[in-house]
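fyi for ur records
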Amino acid sequence: MASYRTVLFLNSLTLMVVGLVTACLSLFGSSVKGLFLPPCSATYPGAGFFFLAFQMLFYCSVMVCTFTFGLLRIIQPERPENRFILYSALFAGCFLFNEVFRTHVHLGRGGFPKVTIVIFYGVLAIAYGLAFRRQIRSTPYALLLSGVGLLFVAFFAEALPLKNEIVSSLLEGIPKLLSGINIALYFWFLCQGLIMRSLNFYNNKSNAE
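which gave:
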């Protein structure tokens, strides 16, 4: 069961931390943009922190789903949700692969417009949603929708022709970071519920025998 108080708290805390760090960097004359850049582009200590935090959130999503899939295969191998969890891990892993190896950047240099890459991920997300719509409806899907929606907001914000570096970085970086938090929380609550129900099933089955 999703705890929306936890969701609200973590999202609010993230906004407060980003605001505090941004204010401190502005006082010392450092670039706020550096916080959301890959570590290889770091120009000062701490640069790339929020970029790494976003990646770590997707690492958590992939690991939680993978662990849950392995556990459910032992407890209830025929459970229909197992396939949903497996493909959720693959879906999150596909996006994580792109973020780690920056494939969209290399494709962009090769002549592929960014909008094409965004459309590809959009089609992938729609296919995932349609394939598992029944399972998703029984979950706290508002978290998943908000996470995916914020991710697309970040993609399109990057394309805005803004001259203010701070505003441009925050408009792209904050939605991206919040999307990682909400998606990670979605899979956490989802997997927690599935494991608890499977354990209860296993215990009831053992007691009946």
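Helices lie at 4-27, 49-75, 81-101, 103-109, 114-131, 133-137, 141-158, 165-208. thats all i got for now
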